Amino acid sequence: MRALLAWVLLVSACGGQPPIPRRGVVEADVGSWKFRRFQGPLLDVEVWVEGNKAEAYSASYVTADAEKRGHIDDKDLVNVSVTRYQTADGVVRATVKLARRLAQDSGYQVEEDKIAGARLLSITGRGEAWVMWPSNQHVVKVGARGRSDVPKSMVEYYVDRYPSQLPGGSLEGPLPPGRDDTPARSRKLEKPEYDPNNPRPDAEHYDPSKVVLPDGPDGKAAKDSGGEATDDAAGSAAPRPSEDDARPAKAKSDNAKPAKSKKRRTKPPASPDR
């Protein structure tokens, strides 16, 4: 413990920034806070950046008084989680987007705050209190459930190792640049090889003035003055004769029997009265 304290004092005297812990969080006592437990690496990260692999580490700290009495209340516990990404690309933007989503939730109150000169996101509500900020390829979150505030001494300790890169007005201004706002490069589609048995029309180089329609039966192009095909130029066929018209008429033969005339019988006149 004395060696760690001497090393911290030496770094502070030289004016340099303390190094980032190898496993993200400080696995030692922080002032009056006693280190209790470490977890990691955790793959279920809270701030997700598409295409940027990440893993999280967490540490729990309790007060010295809680250790003495052997009982831990909510106010005696604080948790710190550090998410480490492969690159810093999109980390600030994803952190701001998460804070804005929480701000739209009626159960949380999200504000910009400053602790130890660092701009942070303060998140309170539903019986918990946290502060969060992005730092290069890391996102740091300090707080706990059952608390109404976050201990400033713990925030200051981690801000020294992870300087905040949160821009001012991040909750209301335009989103910081990131991966999801960069338009994808357009890729030109490859044309299939020419097939003489199944040619494809070239819509990109189509010129209607160069299109020539086949000639009609009179040897002229099948277009009228308006450029549209007419019925005459199209060579429309004459109407097809019906079967009755195509069948030749039968001539009357000389041996044809004359039609018999029916004689009508008439009754004799009635005789006069005698």
Short description:
The protein is an alpha+beta fold. The protein contains five helices and seven strands; from the N terminus they run αββαβαββββαα.
Write the CATH fold name of the domain at 21-171. Answer: Protein Transport Mog1p, Chain A
- Report the uncertain regions: 3-14, 183-188, 222-238
Structural class: alpha+beta
Beta-strand percentage? 15-25%
Name of the CATH homologous superfamily of the domain at 21-171: TM1622-like
Q: Roughly how much helix do the residues carry, as a percent range?
A: 10-25%
Rg over C-alpha atoms, rounded to the nearest angstrom: 48 Å
Mean pLDDT: 77
Strand order of the largest sheet: 1-2-3-7-6-5-4
For the record, the CATH architecture of the domain at 21-171 stands as 3-Layer(aba) Sandwich
Supply database-style keywords:
alpha+beta, single chain, Protein Transport Mog1p, Chain A, 17% helix, disordered N terminus, 274 residues, seven-stranded antiparallel beta sheet
Structure description:
By secondary structure, the protein is α+β, with helices and mostly antiparallel strands. The chain has a domain of 151 residues: TM1622-like (Protein Transport Mog1p, Chain A, 3-Layer(aba) Sandwich), CATH 3.40.1000.20. Helix content is 17%, strand content 22%. The chain is built from 5 helices and 7 strands. Strands 1-2-3-7-6-5-4 form a 7-stranded antiparallel beta sheet.
